[in-house]
Structure formats: C-alpha cells, structure tokens
Amino acid sequence: MNFSFHRFILLLKMQFAVNRRFYLLGIAALAGLLLVYMFFRAANGDFGFEFDAQEENYAFTMCFLTVVFGTMIFRQLGSKPQRIQALMLPVSALERMSVAFLMVFILFPIVYTLVYFLCSGLVNLVDVHVLSHPNEWYLLNGEMEIKALTILMLTLPVVLFCAVWFRRLTFVKTMVMLCVPLLVFSFFNSVLSKMVVNNAAPSAPKGVEYSYWASTPFSYLAVVVKTPNVESDPQSFNVLLPAGQQWVFTLFLCLIPFLFLYLAYLKLREQEL
Amino acid sequence: MISLQHLHFAYNKAVPILQDVNLELSPGRIYGLLGKNGVGKSSLMYNMCGLLFPSSGSCSVLGHTPSRRDPAFLQQVCLLPEDFEMPAMSIDQYIRLYAPFYPAFSSDAFEGHLQTFGIPRQQSLPALSHGQQKKVLISFTLATNARLILMDEPTNGLDVPSKRQFRKVIAGSLREDQSIVISTHQVKDLDSLIDEVLILEDHRIILQEAISSITEKLSFRQVMSLEETEAPIYSEGALKGYAVVAVNRKAEQSRMDMEMFFNAVMTEKEKILPLFNR
C-alpha cells in the first residue's frame, strides 16, 4: 500500500481543475432540472409539492444521480490517449482510489443535497406564499436519508468497481451489474422459501394450507395459513430468526461493499493500456 | 539502467507481438528505436514504462519492475505518447497542476524549450494547434528531468522547421544519468541525433549498435554508377547516381544516412546483421 497525502491533494486538485467546466455545468443543469420539476409539481399537484414527495424525490434522485456520477469517475480511463496520461501520472492506485471514493461517497452527495435543498426551499417558498399550499419544507428528518445512504453505501462500491472495469457504456453495464444479481438473488430467495414452506405442508393439520408470502434471508419467513371452515381471512405468521443470529446476514451485507472496494482497487492497480 | 530479459508480450496468445526480447540500455545515451509500422515499437516502450505487462520474461527499469507502477518509478519515467489529449486550461495552469508530481521538474528548462519552439507561455492549450500542443508536451516531458524519457513518434505532426527545433532541444537536454528512447518509423527525423540504433523486426530486437560502430563497419556514399565501387550491400537510385551502403574496408569516414541504413537492414538482413553479431 503506497499512499502519500501530498500526492492525494495534488490529484484532487487536478480532478477539480480538469473537470471544472463539466462539474459547474453539471451543477447548473441539475439545479435547472430540479427547479423545473419541482415548480411543475407545485403548480400542478392538487396539494402542491408535498413534504412526502420532497422526501421521496430527494432519496431517489440522490441514489440515482450518485450512481450516474460514480460511473463517470474514471472516465479518463475510457480513451487511449487519456488513459496513457492517467496511468503514467506518478500516483498510486490507492491515491487514485481515495480521490474517487471522496468524490463519489462524500462530495457528490453533499453537493447534491445542497443543490436539492436550495431548489426545494425556493419552490417551497413559492408553494406556500404564492400558491397557498400549506406544505412543510423537507430538510432531512433522518428516516428516508438513512435508507438512501444505506442503499448508496451498498451499491457505490459495485459502481466504482464497474467504473474501473468497463471502459465503454459504463453506466448501462453498471446498471446491468447492479440489477442482474438482485433479480437472480430475489428469484432464488423466493424459490427456496417456497420449497421450505411446501416441505412443511405434510406436517400441517388436516385441511390446513400453508403458503409462502415473503422472506428476507437470515431475518424472517412470512407464511399464510388458511384454515378450513373458518370464515375469517387467512392468517399470516412471521417466523423470525432470533435477533442474536441475524448478525450473520448483517455481517455478510457489511462485507460486500468492502469486497467490491478492494476489487475496484485491485482492478485499478492492474490497469493496462 | 534498463534490462529486458527474454521478454514476451502478446495482446492475445495467437498473435505474439514481442518474443524473447533481450535488451540492455545504458544512461547518457539517446536510442533510436526503429521498425516498420505495427512491428511492436510502441508495445515495447509501453512494456518499459509499465503501461503493458509482459506475458513472460523480466523487465527491470531503473531498479524497478515497471508493471507495479510505483509512484517512485513513475516520477523517473516520462512518456511522450503519439496520440494525446490536452486538458482545457492554460499552459501555466497545466504546469501548476502537473509539474508537482515530478520532483526534478525544472521550470527554467520548460521555459527555455518553449522559447526554442516559439510557443508563448500565456497561451491556452485548446487555442494551440495539434503540433503546438505537441511542442508543449515535448517541453514538459524534457523538463520533468525524468531519468528515462520515452518518445513515441515524437515528430509526427511537426512541420519541417519544428523537426529541426526538436532535434536541437533533444540534443541540448540530455544529462549523463538520463536515457532517451525515441521510437519512430520516420527514420530520417533522427539523423544526427541518436547515439545508438535499435531495430525491431520479427518480434525481436535484431540489431542494437552504436552509430560510431555502424560507420566503422559500413560506409555510406554517393556514386555516379555502381561500377565505381566494389559490390555494395545495398543501393538506391538518387538524383545524381546512386546512394550506396558498402562494407567499410578502407576505414573511410562517412556520415551515416539513417534511412539508407534502415532500408539496407530491412532488405539485406543476411548480409548486414552478421557484421554486427557479437
């Protein structure tokens, strides 16, 4: 591991200087699009731009745009002339990775949050005082943001890995890389859970039917139980794994981002022309 | 300084680019890496600076393994690529951003090279032509004072006066602890500039020889008719008679014509290479 804070700062300065126009135009375009969308919602929604909508939009767009930004963080590796210049620069892969981490995990979400709240604050003023919709201004309440940040922390390492790995169509390939494992995982999860529930069927009392409803690995399995000759709706039961044993899944989830960060570092170190 | 032992390289296994390349380069010399288009000159240089990794064999440059691309190694190696893209900023800003990565960078040398090339330092890079941008990059590369400077087709895109300026700048900037490797297929551009010739052919270095040794063993002459001279190894029709390459049996002093020599090696390998085999 070769890391110099001096070179890290030099590389960070270079990242800003080389991409200055791209970043400034990007922020301006982002603010413009957000304002157009928010004013449209405020003017055309029955209740204006509501608190819940502000909250959901913030979380969704932050996740999506951070992923988009993340896929572009190593765009200098995309073309041969730029790749030569980037790879010949006397910096280590760890320094390069640290700059990318800082930009994608910290600086972009902060900048996006500031831009979003400036826009939503302005729209909220108009919404309340001009359009007379009594909406509160959403300014982080600790619920949705934590979910959004958790999703980001889980997905961004994969995004960084893809940004190093794929030189062309990075965003499209990254989305496929993110979606395919999730779809495969959820498919096998439901198939396996149904098998578990069906296996338990012979042990059910006569006439009682068990059917699968939902499940989260290492957390719970929800089963719907239909009892014959009972007029009421079928009942559902959650079979919960004891909290003390859920750490296996938590640990597994926590390790995935570190694994992908390490893979991204290795891939960056092994970059060839 | 640079030691390549049994180096093999291929983009895919079916098409080898470099096979069993052995090369030793010393400091204080300018090497001309010559070869036809697509023979692997750039690949060899990229292996030397760690942009490509050999599939087998060893490559040691300034005591480092290039494929590791340690910053300490990259500070001492500078590559002037054939194709490049300059960022949208002024020359001054470019220097402020890139020069601190090279501890031995000399602003005075950079200024001097720019003056030789006639480029005003206050200019913005996107406002310069491709050839002018290349001159800025050549000036920067030399000013890094890197111990190994690799130049891939440096004269591509330069006009005739600029090629002369290029030779002047290169000749005046080599230090004793420094090596410059210039790869080109425009061999005439390297006339009177290089100390040693490397010829890459058939996936390997077929000739590594100092200019002084070449002119000691071969003579380069202009003759009106081929009967005037004993059977030459290689001849070309010229405006006045013939340009010939012959074995230098009488220890004549002649000025080496790089293009003639390269053509002679390419067409008469069997006759020329045995003269230099050690």
Please give a structural write-up.
The complex is a heterodimer of chains A (273) and B (278). In chain A, 67% of the residues lie in helices and 8% in strands. Chain A has helices at 5-18, 20-44, 51-71, 80-88, 93-129, 144-165, 170-200, 247-269; strands at 209-216, 220-226, 235-240. The model of chain A has no long low-confidence stretch (mean pLDDT 89). In chain A, strands 1-2-3 form a 3-stranded antiparallel beta sheet, covered by helices on one side. Chain B folds into 2 domains: 2-202, P-loop containing nucleotide triphosphate hydrolases (Rossmann fold, 3-Layer(aba) Sandwich), CATH 3.40.50; 212-276, no CATH class. Helix content of chain B is 30%, strand content 28%. Chain B starts with a strand and ends with a helix. The relative contact order of chain B is 0.15. Chain A binds chain B through residues 2, 4, 7, 10, 13-14, 17-18, 21, 79-82, 84-85, 87-93, 95, 269, 272-273, and chain B through 46, 49-53, 69-72, 74-75, 77-79, 81, 83-85, 87-89, 93, 97-98, 100-102.
